[in-house]
Every structure is written in structure tokens, then in C-alpha cells.
Here is the input.
Amino acid sequence: MSTSQTINVTYDDFDPLVVYSDLGQWSTPNPQDNPTWYKAPESETGLPWHQATLHWTTEKGAELSLNFTTTQIWLYGALNVSSPSFTITLDGQTTTQTPGSVSSGRALLYSTTDLSPSAHSLTLTNQGDGLGLDSVVLGYDLGSDLKNQTIDDALDQIHYDGEWTRQGGDFFNGTNIYTEGPGNSFNFSFAGSALYIYGDSVQDHGDFSIYFNDSQTPYGTWNARTPCGGTADYGKKCEKLGSLKAFVGNLPEGTHQVKLVNDGPEGDNATFFDFDYVEYTTPSTYPSFALNATCPNGVCGDSASSTNSSTSPSGVSSSSSGTSPSASSTGGATSAALNTSGIGGTVLFGVLGMWMLRKFGLNRL
Here is the structure.
């Protein structure tokens, strides 16, 4: 008998899942300075962060939020060691996190693994002198005996409407494709329980929506603009390769028709969308809890639910192109952060990197 598998999907702090309420309150590296670091090991980058990026704030009240539909979530990042404090608001309920004993380096900030199989919203708010987000990990039951397949942007399975331009570069199979302006779209079909859509993000990108099975209601709408910290500066700047533009899991058995539409304004303020490839997961047995992807967030009626159990992310990516966090956690709600001693001098250079010293002033902590 096949056993259902819980897969951990890792989102970088630059991916569209995460929404920052005010980017002027956050500082980040510029991924374009080291464009290949998103797939480089820590031994090359000298940084412990997922894809070598981190969003950092010293502003009390600075917040970020995300919406998700699954039962398990982990947040990884960093905190100011002298006064670690933040709040988590999950589905309207706020709890204050004030870690007293924490570990150095990249750390688990919060986790919970016993949520209901439904749509959830989470807001993370800084209440101390410094908070950083590195990555978000969501756990999904995708069925058993999972097999992943990839559809490149240049293959005939992808059908494009509107004006699209293909380009070469450091992309999957050496190509990606982009469009400018609202209404341009692409569509494809697949049979599976999960879908990943990848592409690069730039400051001149904007909203896009994903529709399933000819529905007029989008499953979700995201913003693909690269969330570089500081004042908004729209243009071909701060490019981040390898972004997970969107993930949809817990899909039911059958063939799914998918349409992605570039949104945003017309005219001089039109925004771009870049697409690299699609990856999808096909199980031998589908999960007992399934979404209805024709509704927002996949929830629009009674659904069967199942009890999930899982270990925390173990360093094995759910997708061939990413790297899952190496920190561990157990069931229930948990918080952790950086150690309250020993961050400075040589250790600081190794852990946070020189760009954090310059941009965040962490040498003054």
C-alpha cells in the first residue's frame, strides 16, 4: 500500500508569495550583483540564507504577509540579538514572540504543523530592533509515489496569446520568454496534484493571475515585481533569477487546464512578466484533501480533510530547482531566533555577509 508523502515547498523572501507592506522599511541585497547565487552553495556565497537573500528591517511595526492553503508552515530568518521580539497574526489571532534562548545563524522563527486544510493568512510584524525573513516553507500532502515533470517555455505544450519575446541566458534549457502589457497570456494542460511556475523577477514586473479549467475567477493574483528594499524604482533593475512565481498543490485527479494572464496597467506604465518553465507533480494515488482551483485560494465548498504528519524541512527540495532549509522543527507552534551573544566581528562577517554590515548597520548592534 502506498504511503502519502508530505512535500515541503520552499519560497524565497523575494518570491511573490510574500507581500511587504512598505518596502521602504526593508533592506535587501541586490540579486543582480551576483545573479547566479540563487543556485550556488553556501561555500561559494559565504551566506547561510536560502538563495543568498534576506529581507531585514529595524523599523518597529514593519510587517509582511502571505496567504496559503495548507496545514503546515515554517518561517526562517534572523533577529537582532539584543531585543528579539515580533508578533505572528495567524487568521486574525495575534501572538507575541520574545525568544529568550536562541541559536546563531539562520534560524527558525515560527512554525505550526496542525492547521486545518483550508485557506489561511499570516502576518509577521517586527516589534524589536531588527527582524529578517529568509524563507517560507509550506508542507503539502501531494499523494504517493510522486514523479515530477518539466515543461520548458520553448516546448509546444505551452500556447501563447499576445506578444511574447524569447531570450537566451542563464535559464532552464538556456531560454525564457517575456511579455509587456495587460491581457497577454499563456496556457497549458497537465495531469497532477501540484504545479510550480518559475521565472525571473524584475522591478518593472507587476500583477499576474492564474486561472484553472476555464474559470472566470482567478485561483490567485500575485505581484512579480522584485521586492528590493528601499524606495520604489520601476525599471529593469534588481533582477532575481529562479523565482518561484506560483505554486498550487492538493489538486484533484484529472487533467487541469491552466491559464496565466499578465495584468497591470496599459500604456507607459505597462508591466512585464517573465516565464522560464513549469514543473508539475503526478502521484500514483492522489491526496484525500483536494482543492477546487476554480475558486480563490482553492476553497469554495466542503472538502474532505485528512490528518497530516511530517518532519520539518530536511534539506531535500520539493522541486529539482530549489534548496529547502536545513533547520528542523517538530509539530505544534514554535519560535526561535539568533543567539543573544557572540554576534560581532569575524562571526558577523561569516554569518550575515558584508552587504548586511553596509546596508543594515549591524556592526553597531
User: Anything to note?
Assistant: The longest strand covers residues 131-141. Helices lie at 42-45, 345-352, 354-360. Residues 345-352 form the longest helix (8 residues). The CA atoms of residues 36 and 241 lie 8 Å apart.
